[in-house]
Design brief:
CATH topology of the largest domain: Immunoglobulin-like
Largest sheet: 5 strands, mixed
Number of domains: 2
CATH superfamily of the largest domain: Carboxypeptidase-like, regulatory domain
Distance between the termini: 65 Å
Helix content: under 10%
Structural class: mainly beta
Radius of gyration: 20 Å
Number of helices: 2
């Protein structure tokens, strides 16, 4: 049996065991010392949830020190891109404005209060997100612009795509608390949690069924920009 066939076989076996960890191929380039988790987030009758952040926090000690990679929150066609950006604590995020009009980016969130006054192009200095939490972003000119930066203390996280799936690699053996977050989760804390155990060289699956609030944003009104800046 080929390696690819074995992977498909294991995927079928664990489909009915969301929290079970199963034997699989080792993570790339680590000699099988670490494991991985593939997560699925759905709502309703199994519809995939995009932009959910799945994270794993070690329960048997602090995670290894990692230098946070830089990240980017774009502004394109009078929208923030991406809508949800997960980052590790200490990450420097740049806010390029790729539109031919000015934006005024701000946040009043306790995890990071900041303001980037009206500008075009890319500000000289990035914004460093040095406290964990959720940072809601807005534009002082375009009220419909909305995005979130989810700042995590753990380096183990991933965001789901349109298929509702995410994969977290490089997990050291041990116990973890798995959490999922989405800006429209109905529960008051905005997250759910599960415990799971990772063994060296093993792959696991975890699934979350969530309930989301209906999305609502102020309607787009490009004409307001003309009123404020005269074109």
């Amino acid at each position: 049996m080929t390696a690819r066939a074995r992977r498909w076989l294991w995927a079928g076996l664990v489909a009915v065991l969301p929290l079970a960890l199963v034997a699989g191929g080792p993570s790339a380039d680590d000699g099988g010392r670490t494991g991985r988790v593939e997560a699925t987030v759905t709502e309703g009758r199994g519809s995939p949830v995009e932009d959910a952040v799945v994270s794993l926090t070690p329960l048997d000690g602090a995670p290894p020190e990692r230098r946070p990679a830089a990240a980017v929150m774009d502004q394109q066609d009078r929208e923030f891109v991406p809508h949800v950006l997960p980052v590790h604590v200490g990450t420097a995020v740049t806010f390029p404005n790729r539109d031919n009009i000015r934006h005024h980016v701000y946040s009043f969130s306790p995890a990071k209060r900041f303001e980037l006054p009206l500008y075009i192009g890319t500000p000289a200095a990035p914004v460093v997100f040095d406290r964990p939490g959720v940072v809601a972003l807005g534009c002082n000119i375009h009220d419909w612009m909305l995005a979130y930066i989810h700042v995590l203390e753990t380096p183990y996280f991933a965001k789901t795509g349109r298929d509702g799936r995410a994969r977290i690699d490089g997990l050291l053996p041990g116990r973890y608390e798995a959490q999922v977050w989405h800006p429209r989760l109905r529960d008051g804390s905005g997250r759910t949690a599960r415990s799971m155990t990772i063994a060296a060289g093993e792959a696991g699956q975890i699934s979350f069924a969530v309930s989301l609030k209906r999305e609502w944003r102020k309607p787009r009104d490009p004409g307001r920009y003309q009123d404020v800046q005269g074109g």
